[in-house]
Design a protein that fits this description.
Elements: H1 5-23, H2 32-42, H3 49-60, H4 69-86, E1 96-97, E2 100-101, H5 103-106, H6 109-129, H7 137-151, H8 156-165, H9 173-198, H10 203-230, H11 233-236, H12 242-246, H13 251-255, H14 257-279, H15 284-293
Antiparallel strand pairs: 1-2
Helix pairs in contact: 1-4, 2-6, 3-4, 3-9, 4-6, 6-7, 7-9, 8-9, 9-10, 10-14, 14-15
Length: 297
């Protein structure tokens, strides 16, 4: 029996949002305006994909997803920092995120930079603390290393740099894939591997979960690139067509829209098989692949 993904996502979002609310300082805590900006960004309507992947993969690897709730939230804090900074005038210069004004528009540019900085460091503080107890100490340390590598200069930030440098450049399929494996796939791969790590999986099993997350990130990005061409602001929750207007390397630009769609379908088929091998038939990971591939465009 297949999972009811809509019900699962709604329940996970409620659980994760409640945990994020506990973990973040309240808006009344000094400095109030900074915490208001952090909360504005975090509670802006995200899908909570990264924390729910941590929890789903922990369960698939034989662990208890409730024990890794706070650690999973660390990835949402770090992801939100990356979105705030991505939207800044010096990077993508976007004014709309998830259907609302971006943080530098709703507050100001300086506070947006600092809110992103604070969320990044808060994410690692959470990751270093949870799950609590001495028996988790070694896994917490490895979790910090794993995530830091994923978001650092050879991971997400490196992908952001090359994305900027490739703006306006000639179409290059290898460069495009390298950008998105770093910019999107690295943190998603860390999320899936983190779930297996905290479940106590060995290196071989961890590597299988990491590969799934990395490939899922590529699928997500191909689907996102297609929707940037074909979608509306209401569907996307952000400004459509900005990547093309800015001269960004995208899958439709490099491969053409129809070939990009074909790549999406081929990758989705491969990921369905990988998901079944990791969690059995009809599980959460397979449902997420179907959802991502089904974001029509």
């Amino acid at each position: 029996m297949s999972v009811d993904l809509a019900a699962y996502l709604a329940a996970e979002r409620r659980t994760i949002d409640a945990a994020l609310d506990r973990l973040l300082p309240g808006e009344e805590v000094w400095p109030q305006r900074l915490h208001q900006a952090m909360r504005y960004a975090v509670f802006g309507g995200g899908k909570r994909l990264r924390p729910l992947l941590v929890r789903a993969c922990c369960q698939a690897a034989g662990g208890d997803p409730e024990l890794v709730l706070e650690a999973s939230c660390a990835l949402e804090l770090i992801h939100t920092y990356s979105l705030i900074h991505d939207d800044l005038p010096a990077l993508d210069n976007d004014t709309l995120r998830r259907g609302r004004a971006t943080v530098h528009v709703a507050f100001d540019e300086a506070l947006a930079i600092l809110a992103g900085d604070a969320l990044l460091t808060e994410g690692f503080a959470v990751l270093a603390r949870y799950p609590e107890g001495q028996r988790w100490a070694e896994r917490r340390a490895e979790a910090c290393r794993l995530v830091a590598q994923a978001v650092g200069s050879v991971g997400m930030v490196g992908g952001q740099v090359e994305d900027l440098e490739a703006t306006g450049a000639a179409p290059d399929a290898g460069r495009l894939e390298r950008i998105h494996r770093a910019k999107t796939g690295a943190l998603l791969g860390a999320a899936t591997e983190l779930g297996a790590l905290l479940a106590g999986a060995d290196a071989e099993v961890r590597a299988r979960f990491a590969r799934f997350g990395q490939e899922f990130g590529l699928l997500f990005q191909i689907a996102d690139d297609i929707l940037d061409v074909t979608g509306t602001a209401a569907e996307l929750g952000k400004s459509p067509g900005k990547d093309a207007a800015a001269g960004k390397l995208t899958y439709p630009l490099v491969h053409g829209l129809e070939e990009a769609r074909q790549k999406r379908e081929e990758l989705a088929a491969s990921l369905r098989g990988a998901a079944q091998a990791l969690e059995g038939e009809g599980g959460v990971l397979q449902a997420l692949v179907d959802y991502c591939a089904g974001r029509r465009g």
